[in-house]
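Hey, can you fold this one?
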Amino acid sequence: MVNPTKSDITEKIVSLSKRRGFIFQSSEIYGGLNGCYDYGPLGVELLRNIKEAWWKEMTYREDIEGIDASILMHPRVWEASGHVEHFTDPMVDCKECKARFREDQVEDSECGNKAYKGRKASKCMAEGKFTAARSFNLMFKTHIGPLEESSAMVFLRPETAQGIYVNFNNVKDSSRQRLPFGIAQIGKAFRNEINTKNFLFRTREFEQMEMQYFINPAEDQKYFEYWREERFNWFVKYGMQPERLKLHVHEKLAHYARAAVDIEYEFPFGWGEIEGIHNRTDFDLKRHTEFSGKKIEYFDDQSKERFTPFVIETSAGASRSFFAFLCNAYGEEEVTKQNDDGTTSSELRTVLRFHPALAPIKVAVFPLVNRDGMQDIAHNINDHLRTKFKSFYDDSGAVGRRYRRQDECGTPLCLTVDSETIYDNTVTVRERDSMKQERIHKDNLLEFIRAKLDT
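Sure. Predicted structure:
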């Protein structure tokens, strides 16, 4: 097993992401747009599979409903939520090189002046080269209608949670849910970050997977602990190495929170949050009641009690989860290669060991050589499998090279049609992780693949 350095891993993952079509820099032909990325053919499949796994986990149960709220909302929503007043970062600029930093991140940042390569920005600050800190609101502003005036100003949402809170009454009444129940949503959010860094970890446009669980205030601790455990176990269920996950309990809390814990993943650059679980009390629902003039309450038929529910929030970044699953799957190892002259040699194999449910391509189909009707048989198998799984056909290059390409794509299974297939209708099935091969009759492939992908 090869153990590259953490900085090497980051560079290799970024390179692989472009080479295999996971992630592209946004507007790359124009020099790119900082903090924005495009998901390529494999990336969009991996992201969709992550979101689908989350959606099934959260909504295929009796006590959680799904919604899809608008990105643009009434500007008073963000006044009620506190984002207009509190959603700010302290920003400082270097007077010499004009680089811009969040004040609380200067200690961990490098100077923006190329002449001072490796110099810490904190040293420049100590020398008095920085401006005084000033508040910078992270919400993107835009306008509705033909005139760009203050009365027409709205914001791109910085989170998806508020769309859930303002729809509490609508969902409760239409679904006839009783407490405790949750509302889940997957959607885009936008934050005008002062600094973006670490590839997909901090970007200006991203997706969130959020669920707000509404409860009786007397049961807040019970459900906070329940969802903390559930969400940690979800990442392990889909292949995260437990030793690369940890819980970070917040001592300094946001103005709306009674308790908060982050699920952190050990990225190559260090530990970083991939999901937060928060006890948001009744802050949000009461604020929207106050600002809208519409009561957001719950009446308990059994206790005859009327109250504002507490909220336990689970907020995962789909984009960050994508990055974490990509890092978690990445591996390198020395393997033995069979040469054309019968000798053997070693080569480096790069492989993405995705959980089968997350893998962008489930199965690849190859003809061993392009003759004797092998291509037709392989095409027929692929056409059949494509109706059930995301499959890929490849007849270019040596079969060993094709295996390596699929290893880098994270494809769990590869099927090869060879000369034996013509006589006995069996194909070679090769597993990604073990690289073991076995012969399977082509009529049994569907059942065999389903069993493998369900493991």
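Residues 41-59 form the longest helix (19 residues). Let me know if you want another pass with a different chain boundary.
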